[in-house]
Structures are given as C-alpha cells and as structure tokens.
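New here. Your pick:
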Amino acid sequence: MELPRTQTDREKIKKLLSWLNAPQVDEVEIVRNDPRAKEKLEPLNLSVMGESINPLIDWLNSMRAGEIPAGLHDFSREILNHILARCRFFPQLSVKGEKRVEWHAAPEREEVEQRLDLGIQEILSFNDRDLLWRFRKCENESCRYRQKWFYAWNEKKRACCLACSKAISYRRMIQRMTPAQKERYNRRAKKRMDIQRENARKRELAHLKLTEKKR
C-alpha cells in the first residue's frame, strides 16, 4: 500500500476531511421540511455524520482490522446497506489522465443529497485503495475541535494537532502512575506553576517601572 502522492489525491483528502468535520446537523431532513432553510444551511456544508457516515467508516475500518464480533457482522452490514441504498450515482466517460470512468451524483436530487452521495463515493474509493483507515477521529476527549477527523500520514498518529497529542500523552502517563507518583508529580507541577506566576509578576513590575521612568 502506497501513500497518496499526487496533488489530486491530496486535494481529495483535504476536501473529504472538510466535509467530515462539518457541523452535526441533518441538513437533508431540514431542507425537506423547510425549503427556505437551504440558504441558511449552505455555509455549514452537508453533515449527517452521526447516523450515516461515522458508522459507515467505523464499520469498514473495523472489518479491515477484523474487530467486528461475528454476531453483529450481518446486522450492522444490513443497516449500512440500507443507508447506501439511498445513494444515486451514474457513470460518465472521461479522458482525464488514466481514469476512463467517473461517477457523478444524480442531478435530479437535492444539492445536499448530491453532496452526501459524492462524500460516500469518496469514502468507498479510499476504502478500495486501503487508505480509509488513515482517516481518524482525534482521540483527545477534550479536543477543542470536537474530536475532529484528520488524515494520519504517520500510521501511529492519534491526534489532530500537537496540543491534543500532548494531552493524550499526559493522560496516558497519569494512568500509568501509582498514587504516590501522582502526588509527587502534582507537587512538582504546582511548584512549576508557582514559579511561572512569580516570574510573570516580576516581569509586569519591571514593565511598570520602565513605563514610569519614561514619563
């Protein structure tokens, strides 16, 4: 398996991540109930992640890793196949590069539904190339981006940013400590914070004195 190297692949990854991290709102249902809501929802992009996309990605990645319990395999597959049955694609011949056939969303469907179809098509495409497992949700439970999706160029990566990576490492370190080790660590951490506060206070006083001299 090779990592995506072309600019087109990188753009597809970026586009899919942007779509996966859209707000958790079922826009398809909202627009059906109120056609005027479409203009208000347009900036939010499409997201039906909680009910459709997240389970689909989780199931495909769990299948790859062999983690789905035998008793739930057929049950979960039928539920996801019901979701996929809503998609509408049609093939179009193309002369772009080596790709001779492109799949497009059915034009008679609502725009938000077309975006859902195309998003699912991209997910299945990455799965066929054995790259979907690199799309992951940040494992930091307190992630300020709501545990956003990211692409793991490094297969060991578990966080969307450096701050979340440090938070995960800190949590794991604390979990491995004994009560006595935690107490010693907390005492040292408190001492460091006290020193930092004292240094900040000294800098502020020095700044005030300098300002007074200039006057």
